């Protein structure tokens, strides 16, 4: 988050965090590596 804010973005938030491969064919492999995904929202003034 600090790197994003240092790039000049403000009001930075994580809007979603979860397992993006749930229900997909690659879910077992993703779970082995404890893979997570997230979406970030911010704005540049």
Outline the secondary-structure elements.
Elements: H1 2-6, E1 10-18, H2 27-32, E2 37-43
Antiparallel strand pairs: 1-2
Strand content of the residues, in percent? 35-45%
Unreliable residue runs: none
Strands of the biggest beta sheet: in what spatial order? 1-2
The geometry reads as elongated
Give a short summary of the structure.
The protein is α+β, with helices and mostly antiparallel strands and 45 residues long. Helices cover 24% and strands 36% of the residues.
Protein described:
- The chain has 45 residues and is of the alpha+beta class.
- The protein is 24% helix and 36% strand.
- It has helices at residues 2-6, 27-32; strands at residues 10-18, 37-43.
- The longest helix has 6 residues, at 27-32.
């Amino acid at each position: 988050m600090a790197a994003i804010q240092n790039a000049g973005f403000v009001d930075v938030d994580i809007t979603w965090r979860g397992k993006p491969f749930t229900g997909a064919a690659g879910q077992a492999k993703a779970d082995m590596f404890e893979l997570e995904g997230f979406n970030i929202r911010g704005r540049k003034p």
